[in-house]
Amino acid sequence: MAWVVLLLAGLFEVGWAIGLKYTDGFTRLWPTLWTLLSMIVSLWLLGIAMKTLPVGTAYSVWVGVGSVGTVMLGIMLLGEPVNAARLVSVGLIVAGIIGLKLSAPA
Asked: pLDDT below 70 — which residues of the chain?
């Protein structure tokens, strides 16, 4: 269950990372509120996951899920560039997440 909570925490991290772009420097009300709410939920879920998962594993997976999701949404929503180096780098992050999951205590 902790892994599901951690995945959700990572998805909310994506929400606030992308939300930051839409806040326009925290000058737009609704994107700012969404971003702040996403930050709170993301950190709260991360804290719950850390009750049972090792801190290094949980934090690294949280950051990794957030990074991969943010890069992918940046490409899809914001027109950020797609090239082989970026895709390989994202693939390496995904490999790291999988490696941490496989090596974590049960």
From this structure: 106
